[in-house]
Design goal:
- With 302 residues, the chain is mainly alpha-helical.
- It is 74% helix and 0% strand.
- The chain has 12 helices and no strands.
- The chain has helices spanning 2-29, 31-48, 50-53, 90-126, 128-143, 146-156, 161-171, 173-187, 191-198, 203-239, 250-259, 268-296.
- Helix 2 packs across helix 12 and helix 11 runs antiparallel to helix 12 (268-296).
- The longest helix is centred in the middle third of the chain and has 37 residues, at 90-126.
Protein backbone atom coordinates (compact mmCIF):
# COMPACT_ATOMS: atom_id res chain seq x y z
CA UNK A 1 0.00 0.00 0.00
CA UNK A 2 2.86 2.31 0.86
CA UNK A 3 4.48 1.55 -2.51
CA UNK A 4 1.26 2.48 -4.29
CA UNK A 5 1.12 5.78 -2.44
CA UNK A 6 4.70 6.52 -3.36
CA UNK A 7 4.02 5.74 -7.03
CA UNK A 8 1.10 8.21 -7.04
CA UNK A 9 3.13 11.21 -5.95
CA UNK A 10 4.89 11.88 -9.29
CA UNK A 11 1.54 11.80 -11.17
CA UNK A 12 -0.06 14.32 -8.77
CA UNK A 13 2.94 16.61 -8.94
CA UNK A 14 3.07 16.23 -12.70
CA UNK A 15 -0.65 17.11 -13.04
CA UNK A 16 -0.32 20.19 -10.83
CA UNK A 17 2.86 21.26 -12.62
CA UNK A 18 1.25 20.82 -16.02
CA UNK A 19 -1.75 22.92 -14.93
CA UNK A 20 0.42 25.79 -13.69
CA UNK A 21 2.72 25.58 -16.73
CA UNK A 22 -0.27 25.60 -19.11
CA UNK A 23 -1.76 28.65 -17.41
CA UNK A 24 1.54 30.53 -17.64
CA UNK A 25 1.99 29.43 -21.26
CA UNK A 26 -1.40 30.87 -22.22
CA UNK A 27 -0.54 34.25 -20.73
CA UNK A 28 2.70 34.38 -22.72
CA UNK A 29 1.66 32.84 -26.05
CA UNK A 30 -1.90 34.12 -26.51
CA UNK A 31 -1.94 37.80 -27.45
CA UNK A 32 -5.41 38.34 -26.03
CA UNK A 33 -4.53 36.76 -22.68
CA UNK A 34 -1.25 38.66 -22.59
CA UNK A 35 -3.01 41.96 -23.29
CA UNK A 36 -5.58 41.25 -20.57
CA UNK A 37 -2.90 40.32 -18.06
CA UNK A 38 -0.93 43.47 -18.95
CA UNK A 39 -4.01 45.63 -18.33
CA UNK A 40 -4.50 43.98 -14.96
CA UNK A 41 -0.86 44.60 -14.05
CA UNK A 42 -1.28 48.30 -14.87
CA UNK A 43 -4.44 48.59 -12.77
CA UNK A 44 -2.86 46.71 -9.87
CA UNK A 45 0.14 49.07 -9.97
CA UNK A 46 -2.18 52.11 -10.02
CA UNK A 47 -4.17 50.73 -7.08
CA UNK A 48 -1.00 49.98 -5.10
CA UNK A 49 0.48 53.46 -5.64
CA UNK A 50 -2.74 55.48 -5.70
CA UNK A 51 -1.69 57.25 -2.51
CA UNK A 52 1.51 58.43 -4.23
CA UNK A 53 0.07 59.18 -7.69
CA UNK A 54 -3.05 61.05 -6.51
CA UNK A 55 -2.38 64.72 -5.65
CA UNK A 56 -5.37 64.90 -3.27
CA UNK A 57 -7.52 62.66 -1.10
CA UNK A 58 -10.56 61.45 -3.11
CA UNK A 59 -13.11 63.03 -0.71
CA UNK A 60 -11.12 66.18 0.06
CA UNK A 61 -13.04 69.41 -0.63
CA UNK A 62 -10.77 71.89 -2.40
CA UNK A 63 -10.78 75.68 -2.55
CA UNK A 64 -9.28 78.18 -4.96
CA UNK A 65 -6.50 80.59 -3.84
CA UNK A 66 -9.24 83.21 -3.50
CA UNK A 67 -11.00 81.06 -0.92
CA UNK A 68 -13.86 80.03 -3.22
CA UNK A 69 -15.07 76.43 -3.53
CA UNK A 70 -13.18 74.78 -6.43
CA UNK A 71 -16.39 73.42 -7.93
CA UNK A 72 -16.89 72.31 -11.54
CA UNK A 73 -13.45 73.37 -12.70
CA UNK A 74 -12.45 72.38 -16.22
CA UNK A 75 -9.29 70.27 -16.71
CA UNK A 76 -6.15 72.29 -16.03
CA UNK A 77 -2.56 71.77 -14.94
CA UNK A 78 -3.47 71.44 -11.25
CA UNK A 79 -6.54 69.26 -11.85
CA UNK A 80 -5.98 67.11 -15.01
CA UNK A 81 -9.62 65.96 -15.07
CA UNK A 82 -11.18 68.96 -13.38
CA UNK A 83 -13.22 68.94 -10.19
CA UNK A 84 -16.70 67.81 -9.14
CA UNK A 85 -19.59 70.03 -8.02
CA UNK A 86 -18.40 69.50 -4.44
CA UNK A 87 -14.87 70.64 -5.26
CA UNK A 88 -13.24 67.21 -5.32
CA UNK A 89 -10.40 66.29 -7.68
CA UNK A 90 -11.70 63.85 -10.32
CA UNK A 91 -8.25 62.53 -11.24
CA UNK A 92 -7.60 61.53 -7.62
CA UNK A 93 -11.02 59.84 -7.43
CA UNK A 94 -10.26 57.89 -10.59
CA UNK A 95 -6.98 56.58 -9.16
CA UNK A 96 -8.46 55.64 -5.78
CA UNK A 97 -11.47 54.06 -7.52
CA UNK A 98 -9.09 51.43 -8.91
CA UNK A 99 -8.64 50.07 -5.40
CA UNK A 100 -12.37 49.56 -4.88
CA UNK A 101 -12.77 47.92 -8.30
CA UNK A 102 -9.92 45.45 -7.80
CA UNK A 103 -10.89 44.75 -4.20
CA UNK A 104 -14.46 43.86 -5.12
CA UNK A 105 -13.47 42.00 -8.30
CA UNK A 106 -10.70 39.83 -6.86
CA UNK A 107 -12.36 39.04 -3.51
CA UNK A 108 -15.71 38.20 -5.13
CA UNK A 109 -14.00 36.07 -7.79
CA UNK A 110 -12.07 34.17 -5.09
CA UNK A 111 -15.22 33.24 -3.18
CA UNK A 112 -17.17 32.46 -6.36
CA UNK A 113 -14.43 30.08 -7.53
CA UNK A 114 -13.87 28.56 -4.06
CA UNK A 115 -17.55 27.86 -3.37
CA UNK A 116 -18.29 26.69 -6.91
CA UNK A 117 -15.25 24.41 -7.04
CA UNK A 118 -16.00 22.78 -3.67
CA UNK A 119 -19.67 22.26 -4.57
CA UNK A 120 -18.73 20.80 -7.96
CA UNK A 121 -16.07 18.51 -6.50
CA UNK A 122 -18.30 17.14 -3.74
CA UNK A 123 -21.39 16.75 -5.93
CA UNK A 124 -19.54 15.11 -8.81
CA UNK A 125 -17.49 12.71 -6.72
CA UNK A 126 -19.99 11.75 -4.02
CA UNK A 127 -23.03 11.38 -6.30
CA UNK A 128 -26.34 10.02 -4.96
CA UNK A 129 -28.26 12.07 -2.41
CA UNK A 130 -25.40 14.55 -1.89
CA UNK A 131 -25.27 15.28 -5.61
CA UNK A 132 -29.05 15.65 -5.80
CA UNK A 133 -29.25 18.07 -2.86
CA UNK A 134 -26.36 20.24 -4.08
CA UNK A 135 -27.69 20.39 -7.65
CA UNK A 136 -31.17 21.37 -6.43
CA UNK A 137 -29.56 24.18 -4.41
CA UNK A 138 -27.73 25.15 -7.61
CA UNK A 139 -31.05 25.21 -9.49
CA UNK A 140 -32.47 27.54 -6.83
CA UNK A 141 -29.45 29.82 -7.24
CA UNK A 142 -30.02 29.87 -11.01
CA UNK A 143 -33.66 30.84 -10.41
CA UNK A 144 -32.79 33.95 -8.37
CA UNK A 145 -32.50 37.12 -10.51
CA UNK A 146 -29.00 38.38 -9.87
CA UNK A 147 -29.16 42.17 -9.99
CA UNK A 148 -32.47 42.52 -8.07
CA UNK A 149 -31.07 40.16 -5.41
CA UNK A 150 -27.95 42.31 -5.02
CA UNK A 151 -30.06 45.48 -4.79
CA UNK A 152 -32.40 44.00 -2.16
CA UNK A 153 -29.52 42.65 -0.09
CA UNK A 154 -27.65 45.97 -0.32
CA UNK A 155 -30.81 47.86 0.68
CA UNK A 156 -31.59 45.45 3.54
CA UNK A 157 -28.05 45.63 4.91
CA UNK A 158 -26.03 48.83 5.15
CA UNK A 159 -24.47 50.06 1.88
CA UNK A 160 -21.00 48.52 1.60
CA UNK A 161 -18.80 46.98 -1.04
CA UNK A 162 -18.60 43.89 1.18
CA UNK A 163 -22.35 43.39 0.81
CA UNK A 164 -21.85 43.36 -2.96
CA UNK A 165 -19.14 40.72 -2.48
CA UNK A 166 -21.49 38.73 -0.21
CA UNK A 167 -24.34 38.88 -2.74
CA UNK A 168 -22.10 37.75 -5.58
CA UNK A 169 -20.63 34.93 -3.51
CA UNK A 170 -24.13 33.66 -2.70
CA UNK A 171 -25.28 33.61 -6.33
CA UNK A 172 -22.53 33.44 -8.94
CA UNK A 173 -20.91 30.19 -7.73
CA UNK A 174 -23.72 28.35 -9.54
CA UNK A 175 -22.02 28.41 -12.97
CA UNK A 176 -18.66 27.25 -11.62
CA UNK A 177 -20.26 24.52 -9.51
CA UNK A 178 -22.27 23.09 -12.40
CA UNK A 179 -19.31 23.01 -14.82
CA UNK A 180 -16.85 21.61 -12.26
CA UNK A 181 -19.30 18.84 -11.40
CA UNK A 182 -19.47 17.80 -15.06
CA UNK A 183 -15.69 17.69 -15.26
CA UNK A 184 -15.40 15.67 -12.03
CA UNK A 185 -17.82 13.06 -13.40
CA UNK A 186 -15.27 12.25 -16.11
CA UNK A 187 -12.15 12.54 -13.95
CA UNK A 188 -13.29 10.39 -11.03
CA UNK A 189 -13.28 7.19 -13.12
CA UNK A 190 -9.69 7.59 -14.31
CA UNK A 191 -6.99 5.16 -13.26
CA UNK A 192 -5.08 7.46 -10.93
CA UNK A 193 -8.24 8.20 -8.90
CA UNK A 194 -9.07 4.50 -8.67
CA UNK A 195 -5.48 3.82 -7.58
CA UNK A 196 -5.73 6.48 -4.88
CA UNK A 197 -8.98 4.99 -3.63
CA UNK A 198 -7.53 1.47 -3.54
CA UNK A 199 -4.41 2.69 -1.73
CA UNK A 200 -6.59 3.97 1.13
CA UNK A 201 -6.59 7.73 0.49
CA UNK A 202 -9.36 9.57 2.31
CA UNK A 203 -12.20 11.25 0.41
CA UNK A 204 -10.96 14.82 1.11
CA UNK A 205 -7.48 13.82 -0.07
CA UNK A 206 -8.84 12.31 -3.28
CA UNK A 207 -10.97 15.42 -3.91
CA UNK A 208 -8.45 18.15 -3.20
CA UNK A 209 -5.11 16.41 -3.94
CA UNK A 210 -5.92 14.10 -6.86
CA UNK A 211 -8.98 15.55 -8.64
CA UNK A 212 -8.81 19.29 -7.91
CA UNK A 213 -5.55 19.93 -9.87
CA UNK A 214 -7.22 18.52 -12.98
CA UNK A 215 -10.16 20.97 -12.80
CA UNK A 216 -8.09 23.97 -11.73
CA UNK A 217 -7.88 25.54 -15.25
CA UNK A 218 -11.68 25.58 -15.53
CA UNK A 219 -12.00 27.14 -12.06
CA UNK A 220 -9.57 29.90 -13.05
CA UNK A 221 -11.44 30.45 -16.30
CA UNK A 222 -14.63 31.17 -14.39
CA UNK A 223 -12.66 33.21 -11.88
CA UNK A 224 -11.43 35.55 -14.62
CA UNK A 225 -15.01 35.97 -15.81
CA UNK A 226 -16.24 36.60 -12.25
CA UNK A 227 -13.75 39.48 -11.80
CA UNK A 228 -15.40 41.42 -14.61
CA UNK A 229 -18.89 40.59 -13.39
CA UNK A 230 -18.07 41.75 -9.87
CA UNK A 231 -16.63 45.09 -11.02
CA UNK A 232 -19.56 45.67 -13.35
CA UNK A 233 -22.05 44.79 -10.61
CA UNK A 234 -20.43 47.10 -8.07
CA UNK A 235 -20.47 49.93 -10.60
CA UNK A 236 -24.15 49.28 -11.37
CA UNK A 237 -25.14 49.18 -7.70
CA UNK A 238 -23.22 52.37 -6.95
CA UNK A 239 -24.70 54.12 -10.00
CA UNK A 240 -28.21 53.21 -8.77
CA UNK A 241 -27.43 54.72 -5.38
CA UNK A 242 -27.16 51.50 -3.33
CA UNK A 243 -23.37 51.48 -3.06
CA UNK A 244 -21.09 52.62 -0.28
CA UNK A 245 -21.00 56.39 0.16
CA UNK A 246 -17.84 56.46 2.26
CA UNK A 247 -15.62 54.85 -0.37
CA UNK A 248 -14.93 56.20 -3.84
CA UNK A 249 -15.54 53.81 -6.71
CA UNK A 250 -15.97 54.23 -10.46
CA UNK A 251 -19.69 53.53 -10.12
CA UNK A 252 -19.95 56.20 -7.40
CA UNK A 253 -18.18 58.67 -9.72
CA UNK A 254 -20.68 57.95 -12.50
CA UNK A 255 -23.61 58.33 -10.10
CA UNK A 256 -22.18 61.59 -8.76
CA UNK A 257 -21.73 62.89 -12.33
CA UNK A 258 -25.28 61.84 -13.23
CA UNK A 259 -27.01 63.59 -10.30
CA UNK A 260 -24.84 66.66 -10.94
CA UNK A 261 -26.03 66.74 -14.59
CA UNK A 262 -22.49 66.50 -15.91
CA UNK A 263 -23.75 65.08 -19.21
CA UNK A 264 -26.07 68.01 -19.95
CA UNK A 265 -23.27 70.44 -19.06
CA UNK A 266 -20.81 68.67 -21.36
CA UNK A 267 -18.44 67.77 -18.53
CA UNK A 268 -17.06 64.71 -20.40
CA UNK A 269 -13.91 64.83 -18.28
CA UNK A 270 -16.07 63.74 -15.32
CA UNK A 271 -17.96 60.68 -16.58
CA UNK A 272 -15.88 59.38 -19.53
CA UNK A 273 -12.68 58.34 -17.60
CA UNK A 274 -14.45 56.08 -15.05
CA UNK A 275 -16.58 54.62 -17.84
CA UNK A 276 -13.49 53.82 -19.90
CA UNK A 277 -11.77 52.32 -16.85
CA UNK A 278 -14.72 49.98 -16.24
CA UNK A 279 -14.75 48.93 -19.91
CA UNK A 280 -10.97 48.37 -19.94
CA UNK A 281 -10.85 46.13 -16.87
CA UNK A 282 -13.92 44.10 -17.90
CA UNK A 283 -12.54 43.60 -21.43
CA UNK A 284 -9.19 42.56 -19.91
CA UNK A 285 -10.97 39.81 -17.98
CA UNK A 286 -12.68 38.74 -21.20
CA UNK A 287 -9.34 38.56 -23.03
CA UNK A 288 -7.84 36.35 -20.31
CA UNK A 289 -10.87 34.05 -20.28
CA UNK A 290 -10.69 33.81 -24.10
CA UNK A 291 -7.08 32.65 -23.89
CA UNK A 292 -7.99 29.98 -21.35
CA UNK A 293 -10.91 28.84 -23.49
CA UNK A 294 -8.51 28.12 -26.35
CA UNK A 295 -6.37 26.11 -23.93
CA UNK A 296 -9.30 24.10 -22.58
CA UNK A 297 -11.15 23.77 -25.89
CA UNK A 298 -8.52 23.77 -28.70
CA UNK A 299 -11.20 23.16 -31.36
CA UNK A 300 -12.36 26.77 -30.87
CA UNK A 301 -9.31 27.83 -32.92
CA UNK A 302 -10.71 26.02 -35.99
Amino acid sequence: MADATVRLRPSRRAAAFRSVRSLAKVLVSDRYAFTGALVYVVFVAVAAFAGVLAPYEPTEILFTPEGMLAADLAPNAEHPLGTTSLGRDIYSQLLYGTRSALLVGLVAAFFVVAIGTVVGLVAGYMGGLVDTVLMRITDVAFGIPFLPFVIVLSAFLEPSIWNVVLAMSLILWRDTGRVIRSQVLTVKHRAFVEAARVSGSSTPRILFVHIAPNVLPISLLYGSIAVGWAILTEASISFLGFGATDQISWGYMLQDAYVSQALSRGAWHWFVPPGLAIVAIVVAGFFISRGYEELLFPKLKD
